[in-house]
Q: What sequence folds into this?
């Protein structure tokens, strides 16, 4: 750790986040489950394998096109559990409210949480509310944690990527990231640009019904697709080859990224997933995905290779190759 | 809800917290598990009953005599799960850090969390770190959630208090609350005044080994013993008779309470529990408790009566009787 103070980069989901986890947290919480760096932990209880995950939501602004901090908090944890190969069942909600926060806003947020929980078929079963004096927190932060039950015979983990695996992306990227940034900067924009916040557990259930040979699942939130792929490449010690041409970005989102000087590969998504699938099953999984409204634009974006272990290599439009690194700096604090 | 803005009282653990939960949260998160208002939710998974609980820690100051926000965050959730009649097993840790927070402080806090987790025999298996810009959070907030496995044949719940039950308190009250307040106000005080932060799961395991007839367990944190007892009286629709003389308070703590005009019955504890036990088993449970270092001063402080349902009635030192109400205002924000 070079700096003596916490920097925004430590929370950006990129290199410095990774370093903070490795240097300060893992040595203390010496658990094999934590070392997997998956979206959640999987353990045995009773006769079942359970997944357990947590996330704190600090998004700014709290209301944005396509959602608010409330549905982000539900969908985010639902998705983290789904990415473990589990059906999310029970959620906890921890609210931190700033003194003076409008109750009408709280009601709108909680209402949306209820709707999202219903849509994802999960129950909020326990909670906690803290109110802190004005200035001690910015409006509202929400932690959700969740418990889910693993599907039989499923084994997905960040370390399971295998050369030959086909990399599937469930749809267009950067929608959430661009929406938050544009709203924050007060930019007016195309009404079709909105957060993609959505639960992915119904999608993953269908995917597992069609194949048990899904090796890795990941929702590319903070740090975007580029950072998620780098984590997988490093943890599995494999290379990942990406086809730039194949990565779907909405034209209006791409336009805003160009305007703002941001790379969509590093921008957060809140309703998309990456799946690493055994080659023989990829087409089946893909066609099942496309039947689901949240993955209509699913497509193959790359493959796992044994060359370049730990690296993500992009085959560019003009036929060149470039290394796609982890997010190094903070593009966008408080994106989720 | 009379006010249109969130007030500190909404988070104080007393009447307004209760109202916020009842009016805004419960109607939306319509779960029978949530309605019990217990410290955690209990549900079936595989062949076992699991307990699931969450809490966010916002204590100010973050370092205080007897501990820091880190061990509070571990012990608090360990205790909430223990109060469900469960053995805590797995914890999640969600950190919210302010940009500029000293890494040395983070290390000290995380180190303490590791020590406390070890002492409580729980594993931190999943986590999340958010960093927010300077001013968006005061230094550091920590959410912990946890999963535990219920002991066979145990059925403790806030609604299970039964007339005749003996009310046992595990030790002296108000230590944590007075420590935080004194430290915050910069008061110099007796070195023996310090937070009682401690894990209670080893104690509850011994208690359940001695009796399955423990009807209610509760750790009287925010709002203190008075508020916890009121919640139990209301949820179980019974009266609770307290003997003022029997409630242990350290003389130095009582002295500070008198100086500051605070009632120790309403001050937070972080290593104490209330147990409601079938009369025939009370002496056995009590003697087992006293063998445990965290409950050496355990004593009987009252009993459950069928008169005055929903009320806590104190038999005072001078022989009178007074109603002990729920905490109405905010004595002390950010106590845990």
A:
């Amino acid at each position: 750790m070079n700096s003596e103070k916490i920097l925004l980069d430590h929370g950006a989901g990129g290199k410095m986040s990774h370093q903070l986890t490795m240097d300060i947290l893992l040595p203390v919480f010496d658990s094999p489950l934590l070392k997997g760096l998956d979206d959640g932990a999987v353990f045995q209880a009773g006769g079942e394998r359970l997944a357990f995950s947590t996330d704190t939501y600090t998004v700014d602004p709290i209301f944005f096109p396509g959602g608010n901090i409330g549905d982000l908090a539900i969908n985010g944890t639902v998705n983290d559990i789904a990415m473990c190969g589990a059906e999310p069942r029970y959620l906890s909600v921890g609210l931190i409210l700033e003194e003076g926060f409008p109750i009408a806003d709280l009601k709108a947020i909680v209402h949306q949480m209820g709707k999202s929980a219903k849509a994802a078929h999960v129950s909020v079963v326990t909670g906690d509310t803290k109110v802190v004096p004005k200035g001690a927190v910015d409006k509202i932060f929400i932690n959700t944690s969740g418990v889910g039950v693993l599907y039989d015979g499923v084994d997905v983990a960040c370390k399971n990527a295998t050369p030959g695996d086909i990399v599937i992306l469930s749809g267009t990227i950067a929608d959430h990231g661009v929406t938050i940034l544009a709203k924050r900067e007060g930019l007016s924009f195309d009404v079709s640009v909105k957060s993609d916040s959505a639960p992915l557990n119904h999608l993953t259930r269908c995917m597992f019904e069609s194949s048990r040979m899904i090796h890795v699942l990941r929702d590319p939130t903070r740090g975007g697709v580029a950072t998620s792929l780098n984590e997988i490449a490093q943890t599995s010690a494999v290379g990942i080859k990406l086809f730039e041409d194949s990565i779907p970005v909405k034209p209006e989102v791409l336009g805003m990224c160009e305007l703002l000087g941001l790379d969509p590969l590093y921008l957060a998504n809140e309703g998309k997933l990456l799946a690493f699938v055994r080659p023989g099953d990829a087409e089946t999984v893909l066609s099942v995905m496309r039947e689901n409204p949240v993955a209509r634009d699913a497509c193959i974006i790359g493959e796992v290779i044994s060359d370049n272990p730990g690296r993500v290599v992009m085959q560019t439009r003009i036929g060149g190759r470039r290394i796609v690194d982890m997010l190094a700096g903070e593009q966008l604090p408080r994106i989720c």
Notes: Chain A touches chain B through 81 residues (CB under 8 Å).
